[in-house]
């Protein structure tokens, strides 16, 4: 956003309560790599130019990249500055921080889509002796108390943590809800390369059947490792992870699971087959060089023997990891732009309050709006609107 505003000579300031890339610095687990290949780390005025375009950046490398990007673009970042209030003042906004106030003609809320963990209410039924962990607080398997681990949620985070914790020697049980799985590589290329080529990643919001449904799609079961291997529920089951259905209810140590494992894995496999068929057809149509379409054999998961109820105590499970996604909260935003669930109402980033914008939301304008690769296009659109309407920002 800052790069795009500077490009249009719009005076601005970036207020950050921590340091640049704070979430990556403080809320990532040790082994986390991006699941998007390096060539997809594209920002306004920046493209990856290293010698491993198909590799996956570690979080440390990503933070260095953001540091360099901010320095090169001379982004006016005020770190260690928490925004504690945003309210109307005449036609402008009064922005209150713990280090003084600002008056601004426009405000862009960029506090992140992955803001707070979305933990189901059922978690409150667990006894205190069970350790509950959310991914933002997880660093490594050794930090968990001894014993088995129940991981709830089988999207990108859930499958990555399930694999790591199972490989550390603990028995992992993975509660699998609705999910999407794709192989890491297909016909000689990374699956995201194909999705990029097909235009799936930057598909505009107004082209999808239902934006509400699309905004609530789970993230892909993918991991970024040096050997470009796939990771999904079938592979995890092969490695000894016990798959169960969605968590339905928790009473004390008793956890019941829905009988939906077959239905959810079958739906994911149907979707995978559809996407891979689209890739095959694209290859045939364009005549693009690709490896032959050898029969693709994913590791099929089986639901046989999946228990519908577990007693955590007798199973020796001492930890529950909630890999159940994210929510957002804006207690500092004193403007009538939040819906009943506290989400910012917006149309492609434009909120009902003139001059107030949001950036980085899931499927904000395109499918990749909440990804590093997609945020630039949305930032440009909003920056252009701000440039049209704004005279600048000044200290109150
Ligand atoms: C585990 C995980 C893995 C991911 N992997 C990938 C990947 O491989 N590729 C990819 O493209 N994307 C990935 N993402 C998505 C990633 O979140 C986005 O790509 C991107 O980093 C989000 O940037 P952002 O600036 O919108 O939000 P954030 O990085 O969340 O930044 C928001 C900032 O706002 C600050 N803030 C919040 N409230 C206030 C306040 N009141 N006052 C001042 N500052 C405030 C926070 O400190 C934070 O620094 C991943 C996300 C997660 C959680």
How is this fold's topology laid out?
Elements (H helix, E strand, L loop, with lengths): L1 H6 L6 E2 L6 H5 L32 H14 L4 E2 L4 E7 L2 E6 L2 E5 L2 E3 L6 E2 L13 E3 L14 E5 L3 H12 L4 E4 L4 E2 L3 E2 L2 E2 H7 L13 H5 L4 E2 L11 H6 L3 E3 L2 E5 L2 E4 L3 H26 L22 E3 H4 L1 E6 L3 E2 L28 E3 L13 H18 L3 E3 L1
Parallel strand pairs: 1-2, 6-21, 8-19, 9-10, 9-19, 10-15, 11-14
Antiparallel strand pairs: 3-4, 4-5, 5-22, 7-20, 12-13, 16-17, 17-18
This protein binds flavin-adenine dinucleotide.
Flavin-adenine dinucleotide binds next to helix 2 and helix 10.
Q: Can you offer a commentary on this structure?
A:
26% of the residues lie in helices and 19% in strands. By secondary structure, it is α/β, with parallel strands linked by helices. It is built from ten helices and 22 strands. A hairpin with a 2-residue loop joins strand 16 and strand 17. Flavin-adenine dinucleotide (FAD) binds next to helix 2 and helix 10.
């Amino acid at each position: 956003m800052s790069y795009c505003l500077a490009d249009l000579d719009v005076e601005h300031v970036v207020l950050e309560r921590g340091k640049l890339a704070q979430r990556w610095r403080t809320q990532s687990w040790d082994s986390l790599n991006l699941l998007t290949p390096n060539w997809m780390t594209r920002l306004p005025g920046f493209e990856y130019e290293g010698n491993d375009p198909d590799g996956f950046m570690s979080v440390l490398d990503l933070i260095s990249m953001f540091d360099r990007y901010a320095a090169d673009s001379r982004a006016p970042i005020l770190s260690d500055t928490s925004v504690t209030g945003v309210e109307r003042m005449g036609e402008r906004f009064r922005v209150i921080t713990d280090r003084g106030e600002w008056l601004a003609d426009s405000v862009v809320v960029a506090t992140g889509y992955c803001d707070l963990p979305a933990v189901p209410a059922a978690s409150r039924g667990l006894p205190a002796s069970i350790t509950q962990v959310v991914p933002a607080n997880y660093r490594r398997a050794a930090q968990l108390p001894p014993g088995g681990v129940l991981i709830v949620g089988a999207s990108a985070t859930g499958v990555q943590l399930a694999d790591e914790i199972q490989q550390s020697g603990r028995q992992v049980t993975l509660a699998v809800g609705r999910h999407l799985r794709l192989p890491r590589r297909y016909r000689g290329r990374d699956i995201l390369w194909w999705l990029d080529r097909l235009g799936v990643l930057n598909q505009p919001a107004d082209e999808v059947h239902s934006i509400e449904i699309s905004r609530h799609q789970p993230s892909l079961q993918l991991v970024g490792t040096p050997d470009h291997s796939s990771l999904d529920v079938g592979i995890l089951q092969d490695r000894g992870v016990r798959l169960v259905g969605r968590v339905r209810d928790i009473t004390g140590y008793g956890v019941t699971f829905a009988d939906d494992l077959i239905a959810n894995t079958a739906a994911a496999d149907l979707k995978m087959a559809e996407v891979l068929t689209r890739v095959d057809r694209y290859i045939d149509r364009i005549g693009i060089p690709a490896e032959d379409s050898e029969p693709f054999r994913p590791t099929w998961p089986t639901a046989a023997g999946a228990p519908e109820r577990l007693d955590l105590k007798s199973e020796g499970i001492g930890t529950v990891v909630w890999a159940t996604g994210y929510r957002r909260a804006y207690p500092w935003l004193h403007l009538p732009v939040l819906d009943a669930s506290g989400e910012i109402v917006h149309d492609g980033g434009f909120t009902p309050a003139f001059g107030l914008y949001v950036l980085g939301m899931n499927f904000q304008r395109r499918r990749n709006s909440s990804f590093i690769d997609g945020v630039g296009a949305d930032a440009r659109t909003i920056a252009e609107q701000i440039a049209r309407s704004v005279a600048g920002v000044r200290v109150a």
